[in-house]
Specification:
By secondary structure, this protein is mainly β. 0% of the residues lie in helices and 49% in strands. Bound molecules: zinc ion (ZN) (2 copies).
Amino acid sequence: MEMLCPNCQKSMYELKDSLYSCPVCQRSYKQLCLCPQCQQPLEYLQACGAVNYFCHYGHGLISKYQVIYQFAPLV
Ligand SMILES: [Zn+2]
Ligand SMILES: [Zn+2]
């Protein structure tokens, strides 16, 4: 999946897990996974090669296709 920079909308490359860097802005961003229903951070679950996310605010398991990705700049 292509991740776009929240600042300039150019595609970013992955530095390591959940950490992306924008070559244009020369900044790094941490990827946050949010619940599509309540916009709260999700817990990352990995089982048998399948990745799922869990919402602790009553929305249960969220598939990775529904997750909202947001990027927080690293300082
Ligand atoms: Zn950028
Ligand atoms: Zn939720």
